[in-house]
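Backbones bend. Our protein:
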Amino acid sequence: MLTISTPAEQRVLLQNISWQLYESLLAELGNKRSTRIAYHQGQLEIMVPLPEHENRNRLIDRLIVTLIEELNLEYNPFESMTIKKRKKAAGKEPDSCYYIQNEALVRGRTELDFAQDPPPDLALEIDITSSSLNQFDLYADLGVPEIWRYDGRTIKFYQLQNGEYAECNFSRAFPMLPTAKVDEFIDRTQTTGATAAVREFREWVKNQ
């Protein structure tokens, strides 16, 4: 067992965990919890997000929602729901996730079966301390088309291409959005405040 602690998040990694034990743990803990649980091919990681982690998650979520509103898109947010595929021995709880391109396929639904339903179109991952799991392999097995990963300093966009993630300068879900604009938004929330930063960002979107 490996434990890593920082001011932003705490992680515990367990080895040789069966799929049955993973599902039992999910059932025992339930949905109303702050922990995030990830499972991949026998490895199980439990992460406890602390204030810095959750603050960045909520700020970037606000940017995404502003984009969706200004672009007049439909979406279905699921925050940190469990995405799992038994055949791939893979399960993950993103910090936030969104159906955008495939929103119509899950409209009005609160329970999904990922053996049949598509994964979210976009997953947001706040990864201030590096996970012990290979997050890209895990997300690839789940088939998530796009990941935004924030490492505490900058954000990077990744798109799933031929089973592997490639870093991209622009978002798949929002093709006009460069990574630099997200970093600028986060910086502005720290200097002008979140409300002012959202207002400025909304004006930028309108001018695109």
In short: The chain has a mean pLDDT of 92. The chain has six helices and twelve strands. Helices lie at 19-29, 51-70, 103-106, 135-142, 179-191, 194-206.
